[in-house]
Amino acid sequence: MAFQHGLRAFFCVALIMAAAGFAAPVHAQAKGEGARPEVGNPLKAAATALRARRARDALADVARAEAVPNRTPYENFLIQQMKGAAANAAGDYDTAIAAFDAVLKSGRVSGREASDMMKAIAVAYYQRKDYAQAARAAQRYFREGGGNDPAMRTVLLQSYYLSGDCAAVSRIAEESQRTTEEELQMLLNCYQRSRDNGGYVATMEKLVVGYPKKEYWTDLLARVQKKPGFSDRLALHVYRLRLATGNLRDSNDYMEMAQLALQAGSPAEAKQVVDKGYETRALGSGKDAERHARLKALVDKSIAASQQARAKEEADAMAAPSGEELVKLGMNYVYEGKADKGLPLIEQGIKKGNLKRPEDAKLTLGEAQILAGHRNRAVQTLKGVTGNDGTADLARLWVLNARA
Length: 404
Hints:
Blueprint: H1 2-20, H2 24-29, H3 37-51, H4 55-66, H5 73-90, H6 93-105, H7 111-127, H8 131-143, H9 150-162, H10 166-174, H11 181-193, H12 197-210, H13 214-225, H14 235-244, H15 251-263, H16 267-279, H17 289-308, H18 310-319, H19 324-335, H20 339-352, H21 358-371, H22 375-383, H23 391-403
Helix pairs in contact: 1-3, 1-5, 1-7, 1-9, 3-4, 3-5, 4-5, 5-6, 6-7, 7-8, 8-9, 9-10, 9-11, 10-11, 11-12, 12-13, 14-15, 14-23, 15-16, 15-17, 16-17, 18-19, 19-20, 19-21, 20-21, 21-22, 21-23, 22-23
């Protein structure tokens, strides 16, 4: 996980700080300030031990320096600096926090060095599992330290997340120009733990747009179908979304969708589904291979019959009192690859009116426009779909799919 790599990087920073800090006594002497040998020598030994990854030995050397009486403010500064680095490396986070805080309060560090210490304090609180303090320390790093390390933003988000502050996680994520998948997953889990279904769905929608993975769509589709009042008549529309998002699981799915397409008067759609089933080997093998073959034969027969009777179908659709048959015929044309003929027929059917379910027809038009590659037009159509029986929910998911 990237965040864990970031933590390791922070520890490396602490070690570098410890090693580099001991050019300071010589430099300080030029300004009339330095450490006596009885303090400086143990601290140099601590720096050597720390570079060799012997943090406990480094702490023992620091203790020797700290035992020297009558220390000057500068000697105390050097001791706290080294103690913080050694304690951090040793996993003694309470000591590290206190030491680094003392260094910051000394007023002897500024710029990058002060920023790194604020960073180290935040990570130490995080490692101590004091997430509220870790969040405050990380905020201080950004506010006072002028830091911009992306890993520290993750520390802040993780701290809010682990303390259960979903609102803060959401606020930080919203401030980003491009929220990462890991951050959205963090927010998703936060809403799930707090049983905030609205926040969960809104975050899942962001995931399917920014990171359109099959499992995210599986979750969203399942939630939509479980909503109170969702109509079973929309099954084919659900299957269309499942197919578009790679969520047809097995032979039963392909067979059910093909049969629903035949019932909806779209044998060309049924053929596409069956062909896809054979292509993925969901159909054509196993104990039900014969059933698959019979379905394929039925689809081929239905297509032949439809094409043979096409002139009559069009005439009957034009003469019908409602636009239902025009919508069906137009969708079939779209699946035949003749969108230039099919889309106008669907639109004509909607304008003709007397539709039993006008919102279903608008949903169909939006799906047809997506199939034809007219995504912008589809989004506008789908945004106009209303209803509380599932049509508007499915239209919204199609809009997300179009934007993914």
